[in-house]
Amino acid sequence: MVRPAGKSYETMKKILKSRFITTAHVLFGRGLDELTEAEIYKTIATTAKQSISDNWIKTNRQYTQKCVKQIYYFSVEFLLGRLLRSNLINLGIEEAMKEVLQEFNLKLSDAYKEEPDAGLGNGGLGRLAACFIDSLAAHRYPGHGCTIRYQYGLFEQKIVDGNQVELPDNWLRDGFVWEYRKPDKSVDVKFYGNAYMREVDGKLELVHEDPMIVMAVPYDVPIVGYHDATVNTLRMWNAEVNRDFSDYVTLTQEQIHQRNQYRDFVESITRYLYPDDSTFEGRRMRLIQEYFFVSAGVQSIVRHYKKTGMSIYDFGRKIGIHINDTHPALCVAELMRVLVDEEELTWEDAWAITRDTIAYTNHTIMPEALETWSVDMFRPLLPRIYMIIDEINRRHLEEVRRHYPGDEEKVRALSIIQDGVVHMARLSIVGGHSVNGVAKIHTDILKSTTLHDFYEYTPRKFNNKTNGITHRRWLMGANPELTALIDESLGSRVWHRHPEQMDGLHPFVEDAHFRKRLMEIKHLRREGLARYIEAHNGVRLNPDSMFDIQVKRIHSYKRQLMNILHIMYRYQRAKQDKNYLTLPVTYFFGGKAAPGYYIAKETIRLINAVADRINKDRSLNDMMKVIFIENFGVSIGELVYPAADVSEQISTASKEASGTGNMKFMMNGAITLGTLDGANVEIREAVGDEHCVIFGLRAEEVMDYYANGTYSAWDEYHTNEKVRNVMGQLIDGTYGDFRSLYDYLLHANDEFFILKDFNAYDEARVEVMKRFLDKESWARTAAMNVAYSGRFSSDRTIDEYARDIWDIKPLIIS
């Protein structure tokens, strides 16, 4: 509830108090002193929803009445994190709610802990989507999200005997207080069957015989704007069996068996985030999921649009559909299906509308990682959609051949269907009007290598939109002490809505009082993380040590393996020379490995083996500690990012599209130790070399090695004593048997240049520790990173999308 005009703070508190008491009575029929902590959380959330729902209704009504253009952001992930605190902040009632609860001897901070993280995402892709819909609402843009309502998240990570163990993430066990089920807005999605065209009265007409029909039911979550009345929508689609399906009385045993099989199939569609794609069945389920939410979302959008009474021919001017990576690429074909088959438009008109509507963000530099589907799987599962893609491709290649007469190699490179494979990135590019990368270097690589043929063919479609993060969660929510310091220094809270004004902190970089306060806050945050680690890992940490942190999905290109190998090297040196360690350092890792990713899981096992040995070695006198943070996610991240001194961003140059963890660390005053990869390049441009530490191969050097095949891991091993010594520890029993990692680095020829960059990484870490020992200089660096982090807010990114791609304007809800 944004404070109503003319009403005092005390009046607002009275309203909240009355609603809180009434809500508790209605929900649970008990007095406040009888409520459990979980019930208190639900009561607070439901109280907040009363303020949200009024504005939600008002927002949707005004979008319709004023016929504004609306954007629908399709993403297979939305990593929301906990919503209670962010909603209270955005409503402007956090302090008032805290004071109301204090009157009943209750703590708002305890309620925050009761909320589960929504299991709707895994990593950066999903967190970016969540930041984007937050910024859309905060800047009053008509923009919504569309995704799948997964029953189980990726998995809950447990570390057992040093190994990652995956447990079901049953995040919906106690329901999701923020969602609203909308069964009246359900749509049907068709799979399988036999689709073909037949001529009726001189016209071609689609026939789709015996399809398997799945009911898609929307669950809507309000997305609250910051201190205004805008409330947008995240629509999550759930696969459900029609209620009429429950009548078994007149069925034979065979029919009952068939019906149960169908029920199992339907319920499996939205059961898990990212089914195991190492099997044919797992890959097919991934494709089923993708089409399920795309079809449901597109049908819903068209149905809602038609109710406004606007012409279907104006659809592309009033609706934008944005594809976040290729998982929702079938939006192109599904929108064509709806326009041609259901709205009976000509192919030419439907295609013009589709291309005006669709825009695509690429997140993948590596060509081998671009999503593809075999025709043998695709065509039986989605027969009508395959027909449409085949026709899109046929017409597209006619244009390509006119543009490149006689050049069949170019035709192959630009074909959507090639060699029995459907290329989803190619479909996204051909079927839309915009293709953007997510960092300057990423976009340049797309243009020059990964998507070069398409850039050469349609250069005007390509543009860059560097990623961003919502500062309202990652600074204002996660680090209230630093927020208060910035408020005090800038003399206003205008930066809450316009984070670019954080640049005004630049004069304070040289202010001794500001730097002292900043370092006190950093120490406070380290103490908070240390308490969490002692409670969860049983390891006591020194909050005066340097906190060096790498938290992200465990993957070979992100090079957690290089990090832990270097820690092994430092530990070996420390055992040989008691004067080697001059600075206490605590090294943190966190992140999940995909269940079938053996090398990533072995990396986790090695990290924990090294941690166990080092943390028990009393001779180190607490000069080194290693921590693996179990089940890292958004809520733990809110504790971790503000505590970091060093942000490890060490991916192989040219492999990370952008990264957003680097921005979260920077915004909270950590120094980037990284390669010139992704958004690290732009962070360096913002703060300068003296306020970050860059090392390692450049992107062009990496690509030259790949192109020429001149790199040899064996040569690096035999000529580099540091590498040889640390590699030996993988197989000599020091930490157990890790020959798998030894063989991976040598026999797979060190595909991500861990050994090649090892010495440079060692030098970079020495440089970081040297800088940390100079306390005044380090405080200046921390302040500089905070001061120039505003440009990495998702508010800036969304403003660029709105202006350059979507052509939408803010609308003030009155």
Explained architecture:
There is one protein chain. The protein is α/β, with parallel strands linked by helices. The protein is 49% helix and 14% strand. Strands 1, 2, 5, 6, 9, 10, 11, 12, 16 and 17 form a ten-stranded mixed beta sheet that branches. Strands 20-19-18-21-22-23 form a six-stranded parallel beta sheet, sandwiched between helices. Strands 13-15-14 form a three-stranded antiparallel beta sheet. A hairpin with a 2-residue loop joins strand 7 and strand 8. Helix 10 packs antiparallel against helix 11. The N terminus is likely disordered.
Task: Kindly state the percentage of residues in helix.
Answer: 40-55%
Low-pLDDT runs of 5+ residues are 1-6
Overall 3D shape:
globular
Q: What structural class results from the helix and strand content?
A: alpha/beta
User: What's the tally of helices?
Assistant: 32
Number of strands: 23
Characterize the largest beta sheet: strand count, sense, and whether it forms a barrel.
10 strands, mixed
